[in-house]
C-alpha cells in the first residue's frame, strides 16, 4: 500500500487530494467505514506540515465481504481511499512531506491487523498538471460518493419487531430500471449478515431487513447507502443513493 496523487504537485491556496492505494491478496478483504457485524475500518492518523489540514477520508464504495461465514461491508482486490488536503495561502516554493500512521484489519477465514507508516513528498509548483491515469481514478472515486434521492422519490422505514422495512417508491413505474438493491447501514441498525428480503411492485421496491442486536435503543433514524447495479433510472451514473430517514414503529 502507498500514497499517490493525481498531479505533479500542489499550488499555493489550492486544495488537492492524496490517495491511499490498497492492494489486497486474493480472497482477503478490509472493511468499509461502517463494517457491520464484524470488522474495523482502515484509518489514517495524519502528521501534516504546519498550516495544512485534512478533510474526512472518502472511502471506496462498499461491497459485501465475508469473514469466514459472516457477511460484512468492505472491499476486495484493489481500491483507493482519498483525502482532501487543505493548502494554506502562505507557502514557499519548496517540498513538503505528508505522513500518516495507517491501520487496518484484513480478513479471510482469519483476521490479521496491520500497521505501517506512509509518507509522500509533494512540491509546490506554479503550474499544476494532471496525471491521466491517476486523475481518472480519483475523479471516478469522487463521483462515486452517494447522492440523495430526488424529490419525486418517497422513502420510508418502519420497524416491525425484529425487522426493519425500507420502502422506496416513485409515482411512475420504474421497477425494470432497478437491479436487486443492497443496503449498507451506517448507524448499526441493520445486521450486515442478515437477510434483505426484496419485494417488487410496479412503482415501489421494499427491503425487509433484520435489526441488529447492537442497534442503539430507540434509534430514531435509518441511515446508510443503497446500491443498484443498473443505477436508479436517471441520468446519473452513480449506483449509490444516500438514506437518512426517520424510523417509524409499527403498532
Description of the molecule:
The protein has 251 residues and is mostly beta strands. It folds into two domains: 2-143, Thiol:disulfide interchange protein DsbD, N-terminal domain (Immunoglobulin-like), CATH 2.60.40.1250; 147-249, Immunoglobulin-like (Sandwich). It is 5% helix and 48% strand. The protein is built from one helix and 18 strands. It has one helix at residues 132-143, and strands at residues 2-5, 16-23, 29-31, 43-47, 53-54, 63-67, 70-76, 78-86, 95-107, 111-123, 147-148, 153-160, 163-170, 182-185, 196-200, 204-210, 221-227, 240-249. The strands form four sheets. Strands 11, 12, 13, 14, 15, 16, 17 and 18 form an eight-stranded mixed β-sheet that branches. A four-stranded antiparallel β-sheet has the order 1-2-8-5. It has a three-stranded antiparallel β-sheet with strand order 3-7-6, with no helix packed on it. Strand 12 and strand 13 (163-170) form a beta hairpin. It is globular.
Can you give me a brief rundown of this structure?
This protein is mainly beta.
Amino acid at each position: 500500500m502507498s500514497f499517490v496523487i493525481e498531479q505533479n504537485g500542489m499550488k499555493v491556496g489550492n486544495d488537492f487530494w492524496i490517495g491511499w492505494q490498497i492492494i489486497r491478496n486474493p480472497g482477503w478483504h478490509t472493511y468499509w467505514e461502517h463494517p457491520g457485524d464484524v470488522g474495523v475500518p482502515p484509518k489514517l492518523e495524519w502528521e501534516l506540515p504546519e498550516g495544512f489540514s485534512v478533510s474526512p477520508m472518502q472511502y471506496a464504495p462498499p461491497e459485501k465481504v465475508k469473514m469466514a461465514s459472516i457477511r460484512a461491508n468492505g472491499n476486495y482486490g484493489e481500491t483507493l481511499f482519498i483525502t482532501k488536503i487543505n493548502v494554506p495561502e502562505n507557502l514557499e516554493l519548496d517540498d513538503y512531506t505528508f505522513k500518516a500512521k495507517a491501520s487496518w484489519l484484513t480478513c479471510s477465514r482469519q483476521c490479521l491487523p496491520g500497521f505501517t507508516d506512509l509518507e509522500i513528498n509533494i512540491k509546490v509548483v506554479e503550474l499544476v498538471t494532471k496525471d491521466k491515469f491517476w486523475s481518472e481514478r480519483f475523479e471516478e472515486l469522487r463521483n462515486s460518493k452517494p447522492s440523495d434521492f430526488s424529490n419525486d422519490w418517497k422513502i420510508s422505514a418502519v420497524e416491525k419487531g425484529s425487522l426493519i422495512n425500507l420502502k422506496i417508491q416513485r409515482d411512475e413505474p420504474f421497477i425494470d430500471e432497478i437491479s436487486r438493491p443492497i443496503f449498507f447501514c451506517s448507524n448499526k441498525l441493520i445486521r450486515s449478515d442478515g437477510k434483505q428480503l426484496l419485494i417488487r411492485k410496479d412503482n415501489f421496491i421494499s427491503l425487509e431487513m433484520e435489526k441488529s442486536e447492537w442497534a442503539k435503543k430507540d434509534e430514531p433514524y435509518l441511515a446508510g447507502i443503497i446500491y443498484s447495479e443498473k443505477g436508479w433510472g436517471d441520468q446519473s451514473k452513480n449506483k449509490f443513493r444516500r438514506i437518512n430517514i426517520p424510523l417509524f414503529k409499527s403498532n
